[in-house]
Amino acid sequence: MWLLVACLCAGHARAEDGYDLWLRYRPLPAAQADAYRGRATQLVAGTSTATQAAIRSELLRGLGGLLGRAPALSDRVTHDGAVVVGTPASSPLVAGLHLDLRGLGREGYLVRSAVVDGHAATVIAGNTDVGVLYGAFRFLRLLQTAQPLDRLDLRDRPRVKLRVLDHWDNLDGSVERGYAGASIWDWWTLPDELKPRYTDYARANASIGINGAVLNNVNADPLVLGHAYLEKAAALAGVFRPYGIRVYLSVRFSAPIELGGLKTADPLDPQVRRWWREKADEIYKRIPDFGGFLVKANSEGQPGPQDYHRSHADGANMLAAALAPHGGVVMWRAFVYANKPGEDRTKQAWDEFKPLDGQFAANVLLQVKNGPLDFQPREPFNPLFGAMPKTRLMMEFQVTKEYLGFATHLVYLGTLYREALSADTMARGPGSTVAKVVDGTLDGHALTGIAGVANIGADRDWCGSVFNQANWYAFGRLAWDPTLSARAIAEAWTRMTFGNDAAVVRPVVDMMMGSREAAVDYMTPLGLAHLMGHGHHYGPEPWDASGPRADWTPVYFHRADHDGIGFDRTATGSDAVAQYAPPVAREFADLGRIPDRYLLWFHHVPWTYRMRSGRTLWDALVRHYTQGVDDVRRMRETWAGLKGHVDDERYRQVASFLAIQQREAQWWRDACLAYFQSLNGLPLPAGYAPPAHPLKYYQSLSFKYVPGYSAW
Ligand code: GCV
Q: Would you tell me which of 51, 539, 563, 605 could form a disulfide with 129, CB atoms 3.0–4.6 Å apart?
């Protein structure tokens, strides 16, 4: 035991390089540790399954690290302060307590103070090992965030069934829209080499309730379904299994041709159907708990059922039939926009999928991005939410910051996720929130899901910056419970990541909470969208009208000219607004009622348009752009004030990234204002500095080697 403690303590000398994420388990300050004295002195936990072993090892590691001494292992409670862990089936002590575990389901848990064999103890129990694992992480979080351990009576279970990370990782080791280095999957050395990092990945996910991982990019290589890669996927599944995580694969719809040598991938062709059935059988032989397939079809050049004049439902149901005997699911993406050339891009997914409501098999989920465009800094909610009551709709968020400054900008996404989840679709009357669509309560679906496009790579700190870890963390917590508050999540993460010193926690949380609005302000305020550089999406290029498709260009989205700006999506324009439930459509269509944040998304207005504030639109735009830059400057000042309160290593990284962010926020503001001013010829309001350079300068900038770039 002493050896173990010594090892744990030696671990504390390790550099704060971010590898440990929010599971740092550094020793608590003396006052806090004192408050927990006499707690967690003994641990009664089984090891007869791999999950039980994982629970025990996590509690030893966590408690040992936090309290400076690991609890003594025991199979009985002999004094006060024991932690008793298990299910009624795995632990006679837990069984003897006759706890009410009803309603906790397969993944729920309770953490409760109890008297066991005459001694005060904390019991962590569930109906399954995985439920107990989640409870163990909850218990550790209580200590990490300095919560009292007295009179505990916590019960929790996930509100959403599939809580999945989508990795856009390619088999060559690159990551589409990845800003944290190469893929964490070392395909080349798998299945033999099982890096400890894979286990740590599983631990981190389990600690926030994530229970699925799609290993490869939705722009899928058919090879992933070949024998060699299935072996590799099976090896990862073996590492993840004890942590309650299932493996899924993105599949290419035409794989029967490329891999199976068939002449067609027509979903109604018997040979094609057989090929997929046999492929599913083969996968389940290797991975008995395989989760299923994720599919991007007839979208951005990917093949799909429409190549054979079949519908998305035909395609999804064919794959669903192959997986159904094994309990697998199909996550079919709704991100399509090539079906009606010339039609407003944001309308096309709804046009395509709404008529298919009721046609999808019971094990198909339609995976819908939070907004109707593409993970912009701000979008209104996707009108498909609420519009397909007979279809299981799952949410797709982006955790990686493709349109939000990549790895270096500090942008906490908990607020973005909550904004989308709390939006009221009004589809079944007031209170029909997106969260209720996603957790299935609105339309009575039991099979539910949330996916997040991962921001994880091979970088030592996993996510390319310490603060990006908060987005992985927030995604997991909200996937478990979409009603949680973004602030509470930010606070828990901050405490676990930087400690409980109020002098650090308060400013860091405030900074995080304002950060997304700052990014919206310096990039795309007042409902603007997609002003980013072509293809790579780095930096501002609002003037760009080039490229193969109009609906990839900023000018398509902002529609600015000498007189005004904005995309008219009301009845006088594309009428995208009509895709929302009538009360929402009326609000968005009404210039008098639309929230400022969506103004230019739905309306084209003159530069001289009077905002509710009394300012002209142009003045308001200048103020927002300037506000964004000022906010970043303040974030930098806040961080500078924490020097000495945060370890040097993480302090330094964040400080240098904030310097980049400030420079780039200024660039965004100046380039956008210079461009818009070149169209409208209006002066800046008094007191606002002109752009640092002439427009030509910003237009001359070009970037060749941008991380995460893909042809799409
Ligand atoms: C995986 C956007 C991104 C693409 C991505 C696509 C998608 O267009 O820029 O890189 O492709 O979304 O979600 O399928």
A: 51
pLDDT, one tens digit per residue, over 18-53 is 999 999 999 999 999 988 989 999 999 999 999 999
How many domains, in total, are found in the chain? 3
For 321, the domain range is 162-498
Nearest C-alpha neighbor of 191 from the set 228, 166, 241: 228
Long-range contact list for 706-711, CB < 8 A, 24+ apart?
706/533, 706/536, 706/538, 707/178, 707/179, 707/406, 707/407, 708/175, 708/176, 708/177, 708/178, 708/179, 708/400, 708/402, 708/406, 708/536, 709/535, 709/536, 710/176, 710/177, 710/219, 711/535
381 and 473 in one domain? Answer: yes
Q: Are 481 and 528 within one domain? A: no
pLDDT digits (tens, 9 = 90+) for 247-261: 999 999 999 999 999
- Please tell me whether residues 83 and 175 are part of one structural domain: no
Residue 336 has pLDDT above 90, yes or no: yes
Report the atom number in ligand 1 closest to the C-alpha of 177. Answer: 10
In a domain, 578, yes or no: no
pLDDT at 709 (0 to 100): 86
Mutation choice for ligand 1 from 177, 221, 345, CB with most ligand atoms inside 8 A = 177
> Residue 453: what residue type?
V
Which residue's CA is minimally distant from atom 4 of ligand 1? 712
Q: Does any ligand 1 atom lie closer than 6 A to the CB of residue 710? A: yes
Q: In the structure, what pLDDT confidence band is assigned to residue 342 with cuts at 50, 70 and 90? A: confident
- Where residue 130 sits, what CATH number does that domain have? 3.30.379.10
Per-residue model confidence (pLDDT) at position 711: 59
Write down which residue in 141, 156, 171 finishes a domain: 156
pTM: 0.97
Are 493 and 470 spatial neighbours (Cβ–Cβ below 8 Å)?
A: yes
Residues 709/535, Cβ–Cβ less than 8 Å: yes
End-to-end Cα separation, the chain, in angstroms: 54
Q: Which two tokens stand for residue 607?
A: 């530069």
